[in-house]
Amino acid sequence: MKYIAYCRKSTDEKDKQVLSIEAQIAELKEFAKREKLTVTEFITEAKTAKAPGREQFAEVLKKIEKGMANAILSWHPDRLARNSIDGGKIIYLLDTGKLLDLKFPSFWFESTPQGKFMLSIAFGQSKYYVDNLSENVKRGNRQKLRNGVWPSKAPYGYINNPKTRGIDIDEEKSKVVKQSFQLFADGNVSFTGISQFMFKFGIKREGEKPVKVGQVKNMLSNRFYLGILKYAGEYYQGSHKTFISKKLFDEVQKQVEKIERPRQKGHNFAFAGLATCGECGAAITAEQHIKKYKNGTDQTFIYYRCTKKLRPCTQKYVSEIELEPQIRKIVSDCGLHEDWEPYFEKWITQAEEKDKLVAGVEEIQLDGQIQESEVKLNRLLNGYLDQVIEPEIYKQKKNELFEEKLKLEEKKSQISKSGTVWLEPMREFVNCALQAQKVARAENNSHDLSIMGKKVGSNFFLNDRRLSATLDFPFAALSAEGGAASAAPNSDSISFLVTPLGLEPRFLG
Questions:
Q1: Contact 131/14 with Cβ under 8 angstroms?
Q2: Residue 133 and residue 14: Cα distance in Å, rounded?
Q3: pLDDT surpassing 80 at residue 207
Q4: Structural class in CATH, domain 2-141
Q5: pTM to 2 decimals?
């Protein structure tokens, strides 16, 4: 008989006692020599046998069917098959006489009805092992998720702890990830740019290559960094520590949404996408013109105009030279002079002390609402376990209640940290207004002006070559005072913007 020796080692093999391919070859050679078997070739494969589709195994069967060999030598039946289809093919080849013999150093086989029966049992045991192992893994994963532990590979910035079987923060790489979030939130950095930044500081994929763009996008949108696990379409509360704030994460999501919108090709115009036409509501596009002079020099001009794609429109173009001062004026009127900072800091500090007195009451109310959500979740689970609620409806309702609970917990967290929900946004406003003043005074910073413009307002319209905007509160109040706060405070402006005690800005009262 002519034997083909087949050796297999799965890359995800859970049974640590299975021999390596090299060890299997050595054992089979000794066995063939001892039993005086003729081995025509050795075929090896590093692939799981849980499902059909092994290329080298298919090649073995093909050669058997063609008569190039008529017997198979392998370490154990589970090396040949761990699924019903591959095991059935082996039995069928034995039944048709194309496969005359099977030899295993660790298993007895004869091509008789009894031998085929025992072989079928061996294949069945192998399949049962795989099925049982898979079910045990799924069960373990479900329990991990209930405990708030991610059951798979840790995301970037985290590390799998083999001792606790949990997820820990990687002290070094978490700083790189946090900086990556911050860089992306600031704008003007692409997914590729973030990948290159991460690669520079040691975060890379296998093969010492930069992280793929898709992986960067998934990282930036992964709510794992907020302590939320999503597995198989279902939400769970994570128990791991986080290092990305909700504020930063939300800013990144806005940038992700922005960067995925259709963008102007060919040029990176500073004010593209900022405004829409005030007459017809169509988008404002930008174009570049180069004027060449007889002396060989040239000059570049950038114009912004209505695309006129919605309906006929009479609006004319406006040059970037005309548009930039208008944006600068809007930003400047929303700015705070740096000398205003101590006045606002004093007011915010005193307001924070007052609000701490009422924060306790609000937290008690939120605790009650959170407990109510827990009761609803438990009732929902009981209905699911009693088979009163369908699985899909259970998953949908659970996610809705989970989202509701997360919002309540987030609100409670904000109150705990800032006294009340609005104090942190107030600090953000002051910082943004201080930054706006610096941006408005700087030169040759068109892109920074555009970014700041989008922070202080929205709904920018261009009509008759004039730019207008709907400013966000309280920037609108600053602008309404004609930019008085953009100058250093004096006795008149202080009495105008701040109460006589110097505690409460009038436009915030």
A1: no
A2: 9
A3: no
A4: alpha beta
A5: 0.42
